[in-house]
Amino acid sequence: MGSQPVIEQKKSSIELWKRDIPGQLTSVDLSPDHHWVARGFENGVVHFLDGESNLVWEAEVGQPVKKVKILARKKKVAILNEYSQLFLVDFAGKLVLKKGFREFWSGLGSKSGDVLLTGWKSKPRRIDVATLGRQF
């Protein structure tokens, strides 16, 4: 019997840039157009980077970051920390909203540009970003 042929798989990705990660990374999101990257860290810091890996802004949310989500249509970044506090920061780095919840949220997503919070013992909650953004 002969040897089995070796099958090579082509890489499905390309390296765009390299950047050191200064700490324990807990969440990353990439915008649909691949021009923005949000990343959250265990120490409560969030970085917003442009498509060239340049730091656009840095925010501190007080507790470890659970999730980050880029809301490209609203030009905001949603941040959920370990204490179920939701932060919205616009693309220029201005804090637009800080809101605490009694429910424990573990997931953060978006639907039609709004924030969708999910949790273990709570029904999913959709939050209208335009309405909440006016409260702060």
Mind explaining what this structure looks like?
The protein is mainly beta. 4% of the residues lie in helices and 46% in strands. Strands 1-2-3-4 form a four-stranded antiparallel sheet, with no helix packed on it. Strands 5-6-7-8 form a four-stranded antiparallel sheet. It is globular, with a radius of gyration of 18 Å. It starts with 24 loop residues before the first strand and ends with a helix.
Write the SSE topology:
Layout: E1 25-30, E2 36-41, E3 45-50, E4 55-60, E5 65-71, E6 76-81, E7 85-90, E8 95-100, E9 107-111, E10 114-118, E11 125-127, H1 129-133
Antiparallel strand pairs: 1-2, 2-3, 3-4, 5-6, 6-7, 7-8, 9-10, 10-11
What can be said about this structure in brief?
This protein is mostly beta strands and 136 residues long.
Strand content: over 45%
Backbone structural class = mainly beta
Q: What is the number of helical segments per DSSP (H or I, 4+ residues)? A: 1
Major sheet size, sense and barrel closure: 4 strands, antiparallel
User: How many beta-strand runs?
Assistant: 11
Indicate the low-confidence ranges by residue numbers.
Answer: none
Strand order of the largest sheet: 1-2-3-4
Query: Fraction of residues in helices?
Result: under 10%
State Rg: 18 Å
